[in-house]
Each structure stands twice: as C-alpha cells, then as structure tokens.
Amino acid sequence: MKNLILILVAIFTISTVIAQNNEKGKGNGKGKENGGKNSIPESAVPAAVVNAFKAANAGATNVVWRKNPKKEIYRAGYTSADGMRKASIYTPDGKQLRAIEIGKENLLPANILSDVKAKATGAEIKRVEKHTLVQKNNEIRYHVIAVNKEAKTRYHFRYDGTGKLLDMKQKTAGDKGNNGKPEKNDDDDDDDDFDID
Known about the structure:
The chain is an alpha+beta fold. The protein has helices at residues 2-25, 47-56, 110-119, and strands at 39-40, 61-67, 74-79, 85-90, 96-103, 124-133, 139-148, 153-160, 165-172. The chain contains 3 helices and 9 strands; from the N terminus they run H-E-H-E-E-E-E-H-E-E-E-E. It has a 9-stranded antiparallel beta sheet, covered by helices on one side.
C-alpha cells in the first residue's frame, strides 16, 4: 500500500512539474522567447491572412504573429525554409502589403552601406530590413538601425531602392524619454507598430 501511495505521489509531482513547464512556454505577450510584445496566437489572426501566409511561405518555422495596435494589419515574423529571418504584412482580407527580409549589412547595396557609415560614424549596423512593397509594384525600401554604443546613439535610416535617403532619425541617451539609455535593445525584433509608409 505504501508503494502505491509513493507511486501516486511521484506521478502527481511529475505531472505538476510538466504542466508548469508547458504553461511557461505559452505565448503570453511578454518577452522575446514567447513571441515578444504584442504577439498574438494564430487563432486570433483572420483565416484569410493565415491561409495567404501559409500558401506563400511553405516550410516557414518559428512563426510569430502580431497585430498592429494602431492599424488593422497583421505581421508574421518567421524563419523561411532557407533559414532567413523574414516577415510579411497583411490586410485582414489576406492581401500582402509587404515582404521583408531581415538581416545585417549584407542586405544593403554598396551605395547605401557607405552612406550609413558616413552618416553614423563609429556606429555598428545592428539590423537591416529590405522591404518589398507588394501593393506598390514591388518597390524596395531599406530600413537600417545602427548603434554607436560609445556615444550612446541610435540611428534609424530609411532609403528607397535606388539609395535615396527618405528619412533619418537619431536618438542619443539622455534625449527626452530615454532615461540615459539607448532607445531599445540593439537587436530588438519587436517592430510593434510596423508602420507601412
């Protein structure tokens, strides 16, 4: 009888530990390991969006869904079948607005790379996004984030496909709202608003 009770207690303990571990792994919208800020479960994404994404991205893994908190658009961040980090942005009816490749400076044309290095002296390029504007005849846009840790400065650049600078923002630690720290985590993958310009 004692052995039976011990076995039941052991099974109960193991079941409780497994259940707690499973609960920790669920996406709760907190932290990168759970999909990051503003992540939502696939079940909260319109079926037309999910179906369009799956049809265009067979073999995608590590899919994280987000809904723009200001606009009625959805973003799927994922690893493609070829191992690249990518994202796609959709309207609720499943029309793709953007296809995005995410990487480092190897995604940049030489003219943009040299312009960034000239304007952000001493900064390291932390993130490059190559946006293909599907609904605008596949126009290309480049978004670049560079950080100069020594100067505590973060740069955001936007270029068109020819290398014309469209926008540049610079934030330095101590700027209003930064509390003496760089604006965000340097390798942050949480483009929560993912505005579409």
